[in-house]
Amino acid sequence: MYVELTDETGKVPKKIIEQTQKVLAFAADFIKLPENKEMAVTFVDNARSHELNLQYRDTDRPTDVISLEYKPDEEEYFFDEDTEIPEELLEELDPFIGELFISIDKAAEQAADYGHSLEREYGWLTVHGFLHINGYDHYTPEEEKEMFGLQEEILSAYGLTR
After folding, report:
1. What residue numbers does the annotated binding site cover?
2. Is the pTM of this model over 0.70?
């Protein structure tokens, strides 16, 4: 999987950027994501996170990670109106799955609040966002159990334990 990483803040340590790349590759293999997939991760501050949260979620506060899932739209391709395009073909034509915006301010706050390392917090936020852009959610107790269980499985297997 190809991951484009951007640090808008200029403050993210190199080891966190490298860890983010590695944990995403690990998570992609873990859930058996096709190798041709692509995504983007941008590290932002709380002010930018607040703007994005307001824009995309209509929530007037900063948040730790914003996940924007991308689903290809068959209208973007030049097929006859009557042609039904299989989902697999759409996914192959456009491998971009989404993007994450991770607040470095929230990551630092939460690592301190939860009493674990900054590495663990960045890993948690990365895998959490990654699972969201791959169709996982936590709106119901069943979804939450599935998503958080898988998230912890991935982090533990990777070595980012509490």
Report:
1. 128, 132, 138
2. yes
